[in-house]
UniProtKB/TrEMBL annotation:
GO terms for molecular function: metal ion binding; tRNA-guanosine(34) queuine transglycosylase activity. It comes from Aquisphaera giovannonii. Catalyzes the base-exchange of a guanine (G) residue with the queuine precursor 7-aminomethyl-7-deazaguanine (PreQ1) at position 34 (anticodon wobble position) in tRNAs with GU(N) anticodons (tRNA-Asp, -Asn, -His and -Tyr). Catalysis occurs through a double-displacement mechanism. The nucleophile active site attacks the C1' of nucleotide 34 to detach the guanine base from the RNA, forming a covalent enzyme-RNA intermediate. The proton acceptor active site deprotonates the incoming PreQ1, allowing a nucleophilic attack on the C1' of the ribose to form the product. The active site is at D97, D270. Pathway: tRNA modification; tRNA-queuosine biosynthesis. This is Queuine tRNA-ribosyltransferase. Zn(2+) binds at C308, C310, C313, H339. HAMAP family: Q_tRNA_Tgt. Its EC number is 2.4.2.29. NCBIfam families: Q_tRNA_tgt, tgt_general. Homodimer. Within each dimer, one monomer is responsible for RNA recognition and catalysis, while the other monomer binds to the replacement base PreQ1. It holds the Pfam family TGT.
Amino acid sequence: MVSTRPVRFTTLSRDPATSARVGRLETPHGALETPAFMPVGTQATVKGLTPDLVRESGTRMLLANTYHLALRPGEETVRALGGLHAFMGWDGPILTDSGGFQVFSMADRSKITDRGVSFRSHLDGRLLELTPERAVAIQEALGPDVAMCLDHCPALPASREDIAAAVDRTIAWAGRCKRAHSRPDQSLFGIVQGGSVADLRGRCAEALVAMDFDGYAVGGVSVGESREEVRKALEVTTHLLPADRPRYLMGVGRPQDILAAVATGIDLFDCVLPTRNGRNATCFTARGPVKLRNAAHARDPGPIEEGCPCLACRRFSRAYLRHLFNAREMLGPILATIHNLTYLHRLTAAIREAIRAGRLVQLHREVLEALGP
């Protein structure tokens, strides 16, 4: 039977030694293969890059943020201008965060109740109330391919009681989001919370699966816990999620962490790390990070990384890039961002190929050995 879901997922290949898989994600704005990395375009832009440059880096899907766009320019402005795709000039798939991460990151200026979250705007102090219904309405106005449920992500470490309360609220809010969502050309994903407490993770996952969402995200990781706790949370969660739906790990972008998560069955990732690091003169390479401001690069004629096809590596030297950063020229952050996105897309392409060839474990070992401590 052909699925009527606006976003559809098909498994194409599996790794025999792990739970990793290659998939095809079809959306109203095009298809992509997974595992895949989504750059963060919080305010309807990947900082410093035109949509053409974003696509040339290998990007096929990106993320924008409900909270920030509701404040500025406002979702009704975006709707009036044809929706988020037309507004930002990006014709590929888009996923919007619900604003749930701001529940965590802006805890000092928000108040959480069972009804929703009240924020004091970081721009002008005005009040923004974000309920599950309001989060869905904003995302329907923005028009991404994938909308996310509003969830409660507690800061860690936290007591079991606090994590359990966040899970209860996340489940209740997911049900309200599901009932409020009505846009037929947009999918809605649920978000599993539970910190590093296995039974709470399991309870949240099972409750959300029973609601039959179009896809599922693993939230509440990389918010204060160890990498071992992240690994355990993924192992508990992913096998409980439906095999015919995409699985999205929120906020993870280190190469080592992506490889570890793929092995548990994760399909999608997003993180500000490659763009933020690029703006701060740090570049990913297969041999570890390159800090372009270091004096060692002052007369280095070589590229950031040999063999990289990105614009920065094809055309410019480390010495020139170091000069741009030291001179505070905007071209430096632009080129470093292009390189970092290209690196992560090359990595996920290599991961997909390794899964198809049944050698993901070997690739993981090779990447860790090359990156070093």
